[in-house]
Amino acid sequence: MDQTILELLERNREHARTFETRFDDVQDGQRPDAVTVCCSDSRVLQDHMWGNEQPGQLFTCGNIGNRVVQRTADGEVVSGDVLYPIEHTGTETAIVVGHTGCGAVTATYDHLTDGLSEPPGIEHAIGLLAPHLRDGVETLPDGLDREDAINRLVEYNVDRQVQFLRESSDVPDSVTVVGTVYDFQDVYGGRRGEIHVVNIDGTRSTADLRADYPGIEDRIDRLWEY
């Protein structure tokens, strides 16, 4: 047996010991407080970043590029992964979580600027991101190095995903949509692992957000006010 599997199963044994009684109230159904859409990068600890150890609190979705967009025969729609808890469990908070140094954003940037060849599955994911990032690539300030360009596009991608949720007729107006960036690379100047709020319900001006949400003003930050 692969050693990694053995180690993971042993950790799960301890998880089961710790969590056994925490499923009592949710084993027959769920009403999560929020749905989070995170990048599936292995460095993005999707529940742990919120300190969440309570089953049933967060409905967590993961994909490369923290996309909310799904392509169907009828065009682009909100991904069913994201829409399910909103439609069926009464969840009224949606959080898009980008992260610094995102590989999917990097690949999309390379695709839009130089052309890029990837296996079909990855190419499909880049194809979902590219139409939403194209204007951002063209709007980037001159003189940025590659790392700075990518991290500004991370914010831009979060903004576009928030916008797509807010403009979808499938997402009720009562749903609060928050855009964030998870920073584990010292980009924002805080602690590594901090979440920075960059967009709430389409508002992305840091001055406006801090005025509107004084209780979290120290968590509101952006690299790019475009």
TrEMBL record:
Cofactor(s), by name: Zn(2+)
Reaction equations catalysed: hydrogencarbonate + H(+) = CO2 + H2O
Coiled-coil stretches noted in the UniProt entry, renumbered to this chain: none
A Pfam match: Pro_CA
The keyword rRNA processing is annotated on this UniProt entry: no
Residues annotated for Zn(2+) binding in this entry: C39, H99, C102
Cofactor binding mode and count: Binds 1 zinc ion per subunit.
Alphabetized SMART domains for the sequence: Pro_CA
GO molecular function, one term: carbonate dehydratase activity
EC number in record: 4.2.1.1
Protein origin, superkingdom: Archaea
UniProt entry keywords in alphabetical sequence: Lyase, Metal-binding, Zinc
Matching Gene3D superfamilies: Carbonic anhydrase
SUPFAM superfamilies: beta-carbonic anhydrase, cab (SSF53056)
UniProt record similarity statement: Belongs to the beta-class carbonic anhydrase family.
PANTHER family in UniProt: CARBONIC ANHYDRASE
Protein name, as recorded: carbonic anhydrase
Organism: Halapricum desulfuricans
